[in-house]
């Protein structure tokens, strides 16, 4: 057993036994760490495509009138942007990459419960992605319905809606399988002694997320199938000429897609709960409150979908009920933020890049969350619904919340995943560039929306030009910042200094093993009868060495 | 004009109050939370607060109860104002005039109780207008959005949803489509014209198409009128340019390739084909265009009317003597100019056209006042760059440039007309 010291980059096990070919060793690997990285690279490739699409749209909107692309291309562009960002990037995002990589490590497990199903999830994800990409190049091109696929338009248009729907349907399966895998892993594979309330908070957030994936995804699956049937056989569920009701699809779509928003944000909150205590050098404030609030957000999140439909034709009473429930989601969300900020009290805060990203996200996400309250208020939302205000709101919440915290997590766990360290100075500068570009890009949209600029508009009235110009300029700064950040991370991966097992002096189990981790993760699994974030005078209470050692081979 | 800012419906005040309350509270919460965070980040940065000064605090029950309960009170306030503004905009007064609004790709039709149909909405000031909003049955979703009225309601095929308003100010206000509906979604624009009561009544009881119609209008070929009334010209141009569908220019009697069940076939665009194309548009789609965009006009346009349309396609002419005055009037009406500029000397949003030519008038250029003679040059400038020289006593930013909308020839005939007014 002389090779037990090697990292998971050097050895792996695949679903078919052994392969000589390096590529096959990756794409058939059942090691959760390799699967996480498979997701990472495919997802960021799609992220790049979706960002480029958005840049083209912003360029078109720089001036009124038609400049670079025609209206149909524009409509396909925002659909492509939405479908990729939502279904291929953000929903799988944090759970599939950081969740896959870290869940077993934080629990003290050797892998997830079903490693082969884990690999199957990735293959289904690839199949869905392939369908989506193929539909770009055949027939009338990518769907032009918007990512919401509202009927009857999604039934009438000539574009490849069925392809996009099938892609989303298959991606849903990948998502459900990952969810089941994580729930079982959390129930069955916690280290001895680690009760639910001794788990790291990132695991808690994955737990809440996984339940949403399992319970809500089938609903969208069903509704996507219904649209496919409607297009293929004209069964008429959503077709008023046959007695159907287009609004039904809106309900079915949002019953999934609103919880999906919490499915996106909860693991991001989990990342914040890991980073804040580490860089405050003290235990997190209100551990139980944060853990339970994740579950509460997941629970109440199911009951608020109707707030997307205040203008669609709901009774006044239903609007008020959905409004009240929506406000209620703000309470557990607020609790999390108060807990994080309370953790900073009497701390000794170290402003490393992951902490910068987290603090920056707190600003942008609080704006995203508070504007969410503005549009939760019924009378106000009827004015703002389907305007740029909503576009700005969800980009502040999803990009400025989920994606920014994903970036925070990428910087935080970068040394664990690669074993190397990026350049701190450049990483911080990249953050500031992105942060400035982001606000310049989206803040003007709040104002344009307040003034009545509807969304999904290829062209606009002249009075909105200034806001569009500012946003487009912001998009360039934002894009440059992204390139800067990815280049800094690439440099760190190629040429960075060795990071060592625990560069941040953090407390959770993944930091007690070598970076990058060895294939079996742990040489010995400790008895975890303590809280996940125990510091004394800014130093972790425990320093463990759980690596696989030559004289003590695992199993 | 930034219509979004100023509300002109009776309940706009309530909605605006709700907006200011929820936005104000949000800003307050933001400043409070982010303020405290920045204070901690500053004070407890490791430069100012070393590790041995750290105090591990993991719980504080009174504090935790406070920050769970206090937000609930603020949220209840936000909810309450959402409720009051909803109530104001959804309580439809029993006494009202009901206008049926139908959305379809990509225009609105307003139908009044007496059967008048218009593309823009004309309403009297101060009266309760109930809108019964729907979309054509085989069409898609639209949303009737009038920012200035704080009014938005989706138009759903097969369903009728009501909304209402009472306008408190005369003028012209944008109607936008707020629910994505395809290629020309962003061009599905119209206006609400709020008129004085007597002006509205005069129009409503007349046989004019719009209040800005004058009797001396250029008679159009009845086929073209039908095309305009049914919104056909929104997708099919008259001048040969390709919009969503093929242009009507020279449409009759040419050979085109059409897709029938996926295979291409060459046909002659004769009476029969054109009729089929109107009644069953998806059966034979001209190569290069997409199906599914146009819905059938069966039972909407009668056979007799279709014959008129086809006669128009053939190049059928009706005898028209071009009347210069009528031509100018038609330009003014078609561009909505008379909505803001009167012909009789009364002051609306902008100066009246009466006596406009040749007089000396004070205009604002930037912040300074200057006297100019309103000659040909000035009037042309006023049409093309209305905000450069604004007549004293009127506000800038109300009128948008007609550059690219009116041809030089149009402008010349307008100025010719102004000379005699």
DSSP strand content of chain B? 15-25%
- Uncertain segments of chain B are none
Rg of Cα set of chain B: 28 Å
**In what range is the share of β-strand residues of chain A?**
under 5%
Largest interface: A-B, 92 and 92 residues
Q: Which geometry of chain A do the CA atoms define?
A: globular
In CATH terms, the superfamily of the largest domain in chain B is Cupredoxins -  blue copper proteins
Notes on the structure:
The complex is a heterodimer of chains A (555) and B (421). Chain A has helices at residues 22-27, 32-60, 71-107, 115-137, 153-156, 161-188, 201-233, 246-280, 287-301, 316-344, 353-376, 378-384, 388-418, 424-450, 465-495; strands at residues 420-421, 497-498, 535-536, 539-540. A two-stranded antiparallel ribbon of chain A has the order 1-2. Chain A is globular. Chain A has 15 helices and four strands. Helices cover 65% and strands 1% of the residues of chain A. In chain A, strand 3 and strand 4 (539-540) form a beta hairpin. The longest helix of chain A has 37 residues, at 71-107. With 555 residues, chain A is mainly α. Chain A has a single domain, classed as Cytochrome c oxidase-like, subunit I domain (Cytochrome C Oxidase, Chain A), CATH 1.20.210.10. Chain B is an alpha+beta fold and 421 residues long. Chain B has four domains: 12-90, Helix Hairpins, CATH 1.10.287; 97-204, Immunoglobulin-like, CATH 2.60.40; 222-313, Cytochrome c-like domain (Cytochrome Bc1 Complex, Chain D, domain 2), CATH 1.10.760.10; 324-419, Cytochrome Bc1 Complex, Chain D, domain 2 (Orthogonal Bundle). Chain B has helices at residues 12-43, 61-90, 197-204, 222-229, 271-279, 303-313, 324-334, 376-384, 408-419, and strands spanning 97-104, 107-111, 117-118, 121-124, 128-135, 142-146, 151-155, 161-166, 171-177, 190-195, 255-260, 263-268, 285-286, 360-365, 368-373, 390-391. A five-stranded mixed β-sheet of chain B has the order 3-2-1-5-8, with no helix packed on it. A five-stranded mixed β-sheet of chain B has the order 4-10-9-6-7, with helices on one face. The chains are: A mainly alpha (555), B alpha+beta (421).
């Amino acid at each position: 057993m002389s090779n037990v010291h090697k990292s998971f980059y050097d050895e792996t096990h695949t679903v078919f036994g052994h392969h000589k070919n390096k590529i096959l060793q990756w794409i058939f690997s059942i090691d959760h760490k390799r699967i996480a990285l498979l997701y990472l690279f495919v997802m960021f490739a799609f992220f790049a495509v979706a960002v480029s699409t958005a840049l083209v749209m912003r360029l078109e909107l720089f001036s009124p009138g038609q400049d670079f692309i025609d209206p149909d291309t524009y409509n396909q562009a925002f659909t492509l942007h939405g479908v990729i960002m939502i279904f291929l990037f953000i929903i799988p995002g944090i759970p599939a990459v950081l969740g896959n990589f870290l869940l077993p490590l934080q629990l003290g497990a050797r892998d997830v419960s079903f490693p082969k199903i884990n690999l199957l999830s990735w293959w289904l994800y690839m199949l869905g992605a392939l369908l989506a990409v193929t539909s770009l190049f055949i027939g009338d091109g990518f769907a032009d319905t918007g990512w919401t696929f509202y009927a009857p338009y999604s039934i009438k248009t000539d574009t490849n809606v069925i392809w996009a729907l099938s892609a989303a349907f298959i991606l849903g399966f990948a998502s459900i399988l990952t969810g089941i895998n994580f729930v079982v892993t959390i129930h069955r594979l916690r280290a001895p002694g680690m009760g639910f309330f001794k788990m790291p908070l990132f695991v808690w957030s994955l737990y809440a997320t996984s339940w949403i994936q399992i319970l809500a995804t089938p609903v969208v699956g069903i509704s996507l199938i219904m649209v496919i049937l409607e297009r293929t056989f004209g069964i008429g569920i959503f077709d008023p000429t046959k007695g159907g009701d287009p609004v039904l699809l809106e309900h079915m779509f949002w019953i999934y897609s609103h919880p999906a928003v919490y499915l996106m944000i909860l693991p991001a909150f989990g990342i914040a709960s890991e980073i804040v205590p580490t860089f405050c050098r003290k235990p997190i404030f209100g551990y139980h409150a944060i853990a339970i609030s994740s579950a509460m957000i997941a629970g109440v999140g199911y009951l608020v979908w109707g707030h997307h439909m205040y203008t669609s034709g709901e009774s006044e009473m239903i609007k008020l009920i959905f409004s009240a429930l929506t406000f209620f989601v703000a309470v557990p969300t607020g609790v999390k933020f108060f807990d994080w900020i309370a953790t900073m009290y009497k701390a000794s805060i170290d402003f490393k890049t992951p902490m910068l990203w987290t603090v920056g996200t707190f600003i942008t996400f609080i704006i995203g969350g508070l504007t969410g309250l503005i549009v939760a208020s019924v009378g106000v939302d009827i004015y703002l619904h389907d305007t740029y205000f909503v576009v700005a709101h969800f980009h502040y919440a999803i990009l400025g919340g989920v994606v920014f915290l994903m970036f925070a997590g990428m910087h935080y766990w970068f040394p664990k995943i690669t074993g190397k360290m990026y350049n701190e100075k450049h990483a911080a500068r990249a953050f500031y560039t992105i942060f400035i570009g982001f606000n310049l890009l989206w803040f003007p949209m709040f104002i344009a929306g307040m003034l009545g600029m509807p969304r999904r508009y290829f062209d606009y009235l002249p009075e909105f030009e200034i806001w569009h110009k500012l946003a487009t300029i912001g998009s360039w700064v934002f894009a440059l910042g992204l390139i800067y950040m990815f280049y800094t991370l690439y440099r760190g991966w190629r040429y960075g200094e060795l990071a060592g097992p625990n560069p941040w002096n953090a407390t959770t189990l993944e930091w007690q093993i070598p970076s990058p981790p060895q294939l079996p993760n742990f040489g010995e699994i400790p008895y975890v009868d303590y809280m996940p974030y125990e510091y004394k005078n800014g130093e972790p209470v425990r320093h463990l060495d759980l690596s696989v050692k030559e004289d003590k081979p695992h199993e | 004009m930034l219509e979004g800012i100023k509300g002109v419906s009776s309940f706009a005040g309530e909605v605006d109050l709700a907006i200011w309350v929820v936005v104000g509270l949000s800003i307050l919460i933001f400043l409070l939370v982010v303020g405290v965070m920045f204070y901690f980040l500053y004070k407890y940065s490791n430069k100012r607060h070393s590790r041995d000064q750290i105090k591990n605090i993991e719980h504080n029950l009174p504090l935790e109860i406070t920050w769970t309960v206090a937000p609930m009170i603020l949220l209840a306030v936000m909810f309450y104002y959402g409720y009051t503004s909803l109530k104001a905009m959804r309580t439809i007064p029993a006494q009202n005039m009901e206008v049926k609004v139908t959305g379809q790709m990509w225009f609105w039709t307003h139908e009044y109780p007496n059967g008048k149909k218009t593309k823009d909405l004309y309403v009297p000031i101060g009266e309760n207008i109930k809108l019964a909003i729907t979309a054509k049955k085989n069409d898609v979703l639209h949303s009737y959005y009038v920012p200035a009225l704080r009014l938005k309601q989706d138009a759903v095929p097969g369903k009728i949803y009501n909304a209402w308003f009472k306008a408190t100010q005369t003028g012209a206000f944008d109607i936008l489509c707020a629910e994505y509906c395809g290629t020309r979604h962003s061009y599905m624009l119209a206006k609400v014209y709020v008129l004085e009561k007597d002006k509205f009544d005069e129009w409503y009881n007349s046989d004019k198409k719009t209040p800005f119609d004058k009797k001396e209008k250029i008679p159009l070929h009845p086929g073209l009128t039908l095309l305009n009334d049914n919104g056909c010209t929104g997708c099919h141009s008259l001048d040969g340019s390709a919009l969503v569908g093929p242009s009507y220019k020279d449409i009759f009697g040419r050979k085109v390739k059409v897709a029938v069940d996926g295979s291409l076939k060459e046909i002659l665009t004769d009476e029969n084909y054109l009729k089929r194309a109107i009644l069953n548009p998806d059966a034979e789609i001209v190569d290069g265009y997409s199906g599914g965009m146009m819905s059938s006009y069966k039972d909407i346009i009668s056979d007799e009317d279709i014959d008129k349309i086809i006669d128009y396609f053939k190049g059928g002419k009706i005898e028209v003597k071009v009347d210069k005055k009528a031509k100018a009037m038609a330009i003014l009406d078609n561009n909505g100019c008379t909505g803001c500029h009167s012909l009789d000397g009364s002051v609306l949003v902008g100066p009246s056209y009466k006596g406009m030519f040749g007089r000396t008038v004070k205009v604002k250029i930037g912040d300074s006042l200057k006297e100019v003679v309103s000659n040909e040059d000035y009037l042309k400038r006023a049409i093309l760059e209305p905000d450069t020289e604004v007549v004293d006593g009127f506000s800038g930013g109300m009128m948008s440039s007609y550059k690219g909308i009116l041809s030089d020839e149009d402008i010349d005939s307008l100025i010719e007309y102004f000379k005699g007014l």
